[in-house]
């Protein structure tokens, strides 16, 4: 179970940064979150954090914006399901 959670987190974390640092700029984070249906206020507060990609992969709004189905459909990756922490 722990290994499955770690591999899923690594998939999201690696998408947020590697290989081309796609979501490094806060402005880009906000724009991409809004493009994926997150409200402006939540996107701004989430996108302007100083957290790295690993910690951002566990943020509620990032998980909503980038569900596992997105990775299966777009990138052809299989990520085991993870449960949101309260």
Can you walk through the features of this model?
By secondary structure, the protein is mainly alpha-helical. The chain has one domain. 59% of the residues lie in helices and 0% in strands. The chain has helices at 2-16, 26-35, 40-47, 53-56, 60-65, 68-75. The model has no long low-confidence stretch (mean pLDDT 75).
Structural topology:
Blueprint: H1 2-16, H2 26-35, H3 40-47, H4 53-56, H5 60-65, H6 68-75
Helix pairs in contact: 2-3
This entry's quaternary arrangement is single chain
Distance separating the two termini: 18 Å
Contiguous helical run count: 6
Q: Could you give the order of the helices and strands? A: HHHHHH
Average of pLDDT: 75
SS-derived structural category:
mainly alpha
Highlighted features:
59% helix; mainly alpha; 6 helices; 86 residues
How is this structure best summarized?
By secondary structure, the chain is mainly alpha-helical. It has helices spanning 2-16, 26-35, 40-47, 53-56, 60-65, 68-75.
């Amino acid at each position: 179970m722990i290994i499955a959670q770690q591999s899923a987190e690594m998939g999201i974390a690696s998408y947020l940064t590697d290989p081309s640092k796609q979501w490094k700029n806060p402005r880009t984070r906000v724009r991409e979150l809004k493009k994926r249906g997150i409200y402006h206020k939540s996107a701004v507060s989430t996108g302007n954090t100083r957290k790295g990609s690993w910690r951002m992969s566990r943020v509620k709004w990032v998980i909503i914006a980038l569900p596992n189905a997105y990775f299966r459909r777009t990138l052809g990756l299989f990520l085991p399901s993870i449960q949101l922490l309260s």
